[in-house]
TrEMBL record:
Belongs to the short-chain dehydrogenases/reductases (SDR) family. Pfam families: adh_short_C2 (PF13561). GO terms for molecular function: carbonyl reductase (NADPH) activity; L-xylulose reductase (NADPH) activity. This is 3-oxoacyl-ACP reductase. Homotetramer. The keyword Isomerase does not apply. GO terms for biological process: glucose metabolic process; xylulose metabolic process. It comes from Kineobactrum sediminis. It comes from the Bacteria. Keywords: NADP.
Amino acid sequence: MAEVRQGNTALEHFMLRGKIALVTGAGKGIGRACAELLANAGAQVIAVARTTADLESLARAYPNSIEGWTEDVTSDQFMQRLGGLRQLDVLVNNVGTNRPQPFIDVELVTLDLMLDVNIRSAFRVAQAAARIMVNQGTGSIINMSSQMGHVGAVNRTVYCMTKHAIEGLTKAMAVELAPRGVRVNAVAPTFIETPMTRPMLDDPQFQRNVLAQIPMNKLGQVEDVANAVLFLASAASGLITGDSLKVDGGWTAH
């Protein structure tokens, strides 16, 4: 194995010193892991979540590099605050939700919630971030998608629909914004062990069914997704836009 030396040019491409990054849904799970890794790479991170206690614990762990915003990303108040930033180099558009229901039993309240959170808010946040980045002439937007944005699944018609929409949004944004210096990509994880998925994965039969679809035969960890986000946020992915990086252990390769 080649020796890794301090100051190695290739490794420097992954560093984010002098960059401002904003991560939505940063209080727990994938978003928190992304905020921590981006901070470790040198970025000044704005962590956005609805639970103040989660953000306070992040700020205590990273007092010089993570600032917490207690905000609801679907609100006009948050959009105004985001739009007031003078610099934004990285957006991790991570907020999302899921309420699995059989297709014929999907309730309108479920449909409206997931369309609002998973699509409408993601669009608005990306749009506000893109306006700042276009003015700078540079930036990287990472939309959090899912392997379900590439396949279908039982009891997940609404979730699949919203994540397919994120994939389409990512491609269209990338094509339009590329000439203005802004890259746009998606990260598409498989089932990741988080507080949101824990109740499902605690069902032994459900976990067996999930693992049967993953050729690598293991569940994802939040660090797996954060690593992909850092790559797409950094100069190491400088010629990549309009892509979806699947962190799925081979699920969608079937």
